[in-house]
Structures are given as C-alpha cells and as structure tokens.
Design brief:
Length: 177
C-alpha cells in the first residue's frame, strides 16, 4: 500500500484554490505501481464471484477495465450524461465542486448480478452514491465499492457504508483535501 501511495502525486489548488488534487496519472505511468495496484484488487476480488465491474467515468475506467479483464467478467461504463448511446437511466449527484449526472445503459446489468463499483477515489461519496443507485435501480447487487484513494476527512466512505450498507475498499488514504 505504501508503494502505491508513494507513486500518487498531489497537485495543490486544482481544480480550484484550496483543493489538493490526488493525481493517479503518476501511478499509472509507473509499470510497477500500476501492476501492483491491479494485483491488489485482483487478490481482494478473485474469489468473490463478481459478475460485473461498473466503473465511473473516466479514471475509474482504467482500473475497472483492467480488473474486469483479469477476473474474466463484464465491464460496465458509468458515464457522464449524454455520453452513452442507446437507452440509459440517469442519476444526479453532488461533488466537492459542483453537481453533475451519471448514466448507465438499461441493459448493462441483469437482475441479481453481483457488481463491484470502481472509481479512482472516494471524497464526499457523491459519484459512488449515484452509481450505487443506478446499479440498484437495475436490480443489481452491489458487492462493494473499490477505489485507489480514500479521502477520509470528507467522509464519503463512511457515508456510503451508513446510507447503503456497502463497504468502500481503498488501497490508500490521504488526509486533507
């Protein structure tokens, strides 16, 4: 975990003053760090009988697709509004610096399928909350949410657990935001 954390850079005042942006691109360009990250997720989920990985636009796609490939399961993109063709359902959410919407195809998850939701980090939990609601509206069963980073000062992982009974597993934590 400390190796993964050490490869994540912090960019101050991005995207606005006072925010410490935790940038995973420095982790992704490092072959050891990226391989270790995916390996940690594989180790955690390889015996959990996950049927689909639903990953959040856009950084969640990177780890979500790699993990889906490694586990031999389907990959479901959860995209920003207007980015998916075909019939979708939408869910609004709040984040640290605004309000947005995410969508999922109506046929992406079959009723009863066991789903892992992935993103790069959990801050306030808004995008994870919206994604859980989308999966549940399709009658999928959310096994867990997985992120590389947790920002515990913002309380998102705790809120997701309290509100939905869904655990948020994160490889590392960063204090401050």
């Amino acid at each position: 975990m400390s190796i993964v954390k050490s490869k994540i850079r912090t960019i101050p005042d991005y995207p606005k003053p006072g925010i410490l942006f935790r940038d995973i691109t420095s982790l992704l360009i490092d072959p050891e760090g990226f391989r270790l990250t995916i390996g940690m997720f594989v180790e955690r989920y390889q015996k959990e009988n996950i049927q689909k990985i639903a990953a959040i636009d856009a950084r969640g796609f990177i780890t979500g697709a790699a993990l889906a490939f490694q586990l031999g399961v389907g990959f479901v993109p959860i995209r920003k509004k207007g980015k998916l063709p075909g019939t979708t359902i939408s869910q609004s959410y709040s984040l640290e610096y605004g309000v947005d919407h995410v969508e999922i195809h109506v046929d992406a998850i079959a009723p009863g399928e066991k789903v892992l939701i992935m993103d790069d980090l959990v801050a306030t939990g808004g995008t994870l909350e919206a994604s859980i609601k989308l999966v549940q509206s399709l009658k999928g069963v959310v096994h867990e949410c997985a992120t590389i980073i947790d920002l515990p000062d913002l309380g998102g992982a705790k809120r997701i657990k309290e509100q939905f009974g869904v655990n948020v597993y994160s490889i590392c934590q960063f204090e401050g935001h």
